[in-house]
């Protein structure tokens, strides 16, 4: 079959996995994208990966931008047309999410959240990751949503012994009233065992955690750097307590 000059034929083995990963991450560094695909066994050659990315950029299926904190590494996102095409092929996403204008803060949050996800993949823990794009889709379109648009839902284990928790990455502080209202909502959460807040600094962790007294013990708080060293061993605290224990221990003690 011949194709029109200037057109592109997307391959199921490599092109679609790459585009789906960018869509799910929303924003992803070049280095991170290759690692996601390598860890998922979709890519084995940096040379072929680089060629594939350049090809998708040339056909305006990917958008690239430079962000100062990441030096010379490009950050990719997909176009609204690609998002619609992927949704038509079964991907869970909302057009409104992908049509929004990129902003530096949103890009930073997404890229840093990617590092949290990659840390889990590198650790070898048997887990699956539900992206924020799918969480938002479930919350808006189904009748059995979560109480919040979490950054991710993580499922541990398999064969009928699955444990599910929500993950939030809190990189900047919000108003106290926001956290207090959220704490009341978390007390009603029934779809996950707990919510893990990963936070980059001790001062911010202390500020955020003290507003969650009404969460009925459903929230715990840990440092991002500890998670990146050993995810399930991350020391976590709970509201009103300075005692620290491994996250996996806390998770196992939560009611189903």
Number of strands: 10
Whole-number mean pLDDT: 89
If helices are DSSP runs of H or I spanning 4 or more residues, what is the number of helices? 11
What is the domain tally? 2
State the separation between the terminal residues, measured CA to CA.
54 Å
Based on CA atoms alone, the radius of gyration comes out at 19 Å
| SSE string, helices as H and strands as E | HEHHEEHHHEHEEHEHEHEEH
Considering DSSP H and I runs of 4 or more, what fraction of the residues is helical? 40-55%
Choose one word for the global shape: globular
- Arrangement of strands in the largest sheet: 4-5-6-7-8
Q: Which residue ranges are poorly predicted, with pLDDT under 50 across at least 5 consecutive positions?
A: none
- Can you summarize the main beta sheet? 5 strands, mixed
Q: What is the subunit arrangement here?
A: single chain
Structural category: alpha+beta
**In percent terms, what proportion of residues is strand?**
15-25%
Please give a structural write-up.
With 256 residues, the chain is α+β, with helices and mostly antiparallel strands. It has 2 domains: 9-100, Winged helix-like DNA-binding domain superfamily/Winged helix DNA-binding domain (Arc Repressor Mutant, subunit A); 125-256, no CATH class. 43% of the residues lie in helices and 17% in strands. The chain has a 5-stranded mixed beta sheet. Strands 1-3-2 form a 3-stranded antiparallel beta sheet. Helix 2 (30-39) packs parallel to helix 6 (104-123). The mean pLDDT is 89.
């Amino acid at each position: 079959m011949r194709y029109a000059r200037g057109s592109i034929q997307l391959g199921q083995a490599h092109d679609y996995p790459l585009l789906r990963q960018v869509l799910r991450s929303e924003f992803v560094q070049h280095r991170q994208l290759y690692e996601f695909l390598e860890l998922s066994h979709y890519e084995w050659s940096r040379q072929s990966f680089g060629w594939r990315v350049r090809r998708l950029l040339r056909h305006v299926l990917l958008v690239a931008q430079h962000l100062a904190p990441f030096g010379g590494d490009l950050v990719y996102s997909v176009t609204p047309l690609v998002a619609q095409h992927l949704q038509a092929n079964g991907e869970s996403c909302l057009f409104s999410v992908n049509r929004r204008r990129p902003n530096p803060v949103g890009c930073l949050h997404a890229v840093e959240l990617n590092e949290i996800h990659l840390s889990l993949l590198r650790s070898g823990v048997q887990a699956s990751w539900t992206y924020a794009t799918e969480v938002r889709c479930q919350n808006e379109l189904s009748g059995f949503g979560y109480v919040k648009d979490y950054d991710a839902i993580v499922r541990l284990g398999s064969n009928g012994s699955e444990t599910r928790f929500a993950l939030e990455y809190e990189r900047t502080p919000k108003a106290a009233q926001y956290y207090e209202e959220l704490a009341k909502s978390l007390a009603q959460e029934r779809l996950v065992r707990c919510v893990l807040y990963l936070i980059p600094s001790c001062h911010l962790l202390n500020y955020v955690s003290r507003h969650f007294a009404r969460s009925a013990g459903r929230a715990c708080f840990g440092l991002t750097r500890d998670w990146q060293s050993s995810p399930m061993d991350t020391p976590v605290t709970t509201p009103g307590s300075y005692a620290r224990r491994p996250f996996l221990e806390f998770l196992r003690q939560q009611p189903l």
